Amino acid sequence: MKKFILSGLFILAFSTFVSAQEEKSKTQKAHHHSEKKEGEKGKKQESQVLLADSIDPMCKMSVAKGSKITVNHKGKQYGFCSETCKERFLKGTKETSRH
C-alpha cells in the first residue's frame, strides 16, 4: 500500500513539475515574440502593458497599470485611455519629428 501511495505522489509531483516547466517555456516564448526591437534611437515602439499607473498625455485622464494601450517613445512608456488618444499622440510625434 505504501508503494502505491508513494508512486502516486511521485507521479503527481512529476506531472506538476512538467506542467510548470511547459508554462514557463510558453511564457518565455510569448515574451520573446512580443518584444519589438527599437531600431533607431527615439523610434516609437508599442508595448504590451503599462508598467505603472500613468496619466494620458493627450487628455490627462488616469490610466491604470496593466493597460494595453501603450507606446514607448524616446525611452519612455506612455499609457492612453483610448486608441483615439494613442493615435493623436502618434500623429503629433510624427509631425514634430519632421521639423
TrEMBL record:
TRASH domain residues: 56-93
Indicate yes or no for the key word Glycoprotein. Answer: no
UniProt keyword annotations, A-Z: Signal
User: Which range is the signal sequence, renumbered to this chain?
Assistant: 1-20
Region ranges (Disordered):
23-47
| Comp. bias intervals (Basic and acidic residues) | 35-46
InterPro entries, sorted: RNR-like, TRASH_dom, YHS_dom
Q: What protein name does the entry list?
A: YHS domain-containing protein
According to its UniProt entry, this protein's organism is Arcicella rigui
